[in-house]
Amino acid sequence: MDPQAFYGKRNKIEMRPRRTIVVIPESSEDANASDDETYSTQDPLHINEEKEKSSSDGEDEEEDEEGKEELDQLFPECTEEHMETLENFTDNQPSTSQAASSSKKEKKDKLVWSDDNLQYDESNIAFLGSENLPDEIMQLNTPMEFFKFLFPSSAVNLIEEESNVYAAQIFPENLNSVTHKDIYKFIGIIIYMSVVHLPTTRHYWKEDTYVEKVANVMTCNKFEEIKRFLYFFDKTKELKPYDPQFDRLHKIRPLMKILRERLLKVPKEEFLSIDEQMIPTKART
Predict the structure, then answer these.
(1) Which residues have CB under 8 Å from 220's CB, separation 6+?
(2) Which residues fall in a compositionally biased region of kind Acidic residues (predicted)?
(3) Each residue of 61-88: b (16+ CB within 10 Å) or e?
(4) Rounded Cα–Cα distance for residues 268 and 245 (Å)
(5) Dist CA 76 CA 210 (whole Å)
(6) What is the C-alpha separation between 31 and 200, in angstroms, rounded?
(7) Does pTM surpass 0.85?
(8) In this structure, are residues 113 and 251 in contact, taking their beta carbons and an 8 Å threshold?
(9) Residue 168 to residue 177: CA distance in whole angstroms
């Protein structure tokens, strides 16, 4: 729908120049002037603005004179040469925009690698280790033996002890303690669940999705109970975040120490492959 057809066309308003009328009183000298003489048709508002400007200029001059008198009183020994040096100093100071532009230029500078920076001594990077496995590892045959070597019984004892202590702290009336065998079964079920995926843990015990290798080892309630009270350190020794000895990994630090001691027994090879997930980096590959 055309809005002009509905509302109708509007007439354009032409802006005419403003005219000022000067009324000359009969008693003034201009009343006797002839019609040929021209009169100033200046806007009265414009006249008032000029008066205000002239008055403000006068006030500024008075303030400048007062400021000079105060400077003379504070610094009587200041001469014209000193004033010139101060003016030159202020003129030579860089502006904020210039400082910002210079900082941007510094940020744009890029480092370029060259062969000169890669000077190194081969003796410092030579492989001095041994790739021969110790007899303790060479005697391992079954997967369970390898698992017990990397995850020793001391780690299982730690989990058993701390989990029972934590469960007693939460529910003192709970007498169902976790045993050494329960921890091994729990770890085995978790490893199996990482291979055979189901939507939830309870699906391994349901009739439709029943998994014998999980359901026959441990009941669902027992599994969830161990999972709920699983703990690796003594909660009574927990430090506050503002403590200088506070450790962010304090909840798993005891278990990490045991595993680290075991992993250090495995000798490193000469050539290693390091993934970006092992070392934090922002590089794009």
Answers:
(1) 201, 202, 204, 205
(2) 27-38, 57-69
(3) eeeeeeeeeeeeeeeeeeeeeeeeeeee
(4) 32
(5) 101
(6) 108
(7) no
(8) no
(9) 9
Instruction: Locate 167 and state its tokens.
Output: 């469960």
Distances (CA, A) of 119 to 112, 122, 270: 15, 10, 21
The residue among 35 and 249 whose pLDDT is bigger is: 249
| Tokens linked to 139 | 């005697």
Please, are residues 246 and 239 in contact by the beta-carbon 8 Å criterion? yes
Q: How far apart are CA 42 and CA 51, in angstroms?
A: 14
Q: What do you get for the CA distance between the two ends of the chain, in Å? A: 59
Residue 129: count of CB within 10 angstroms of its CB? 9
Q: What is the pLDDT of residues 3-16, one digit of tens each?
A: 565 556 555 555 55
Least confidently predicted of 80-89, 229-238, 239-248? 80-89
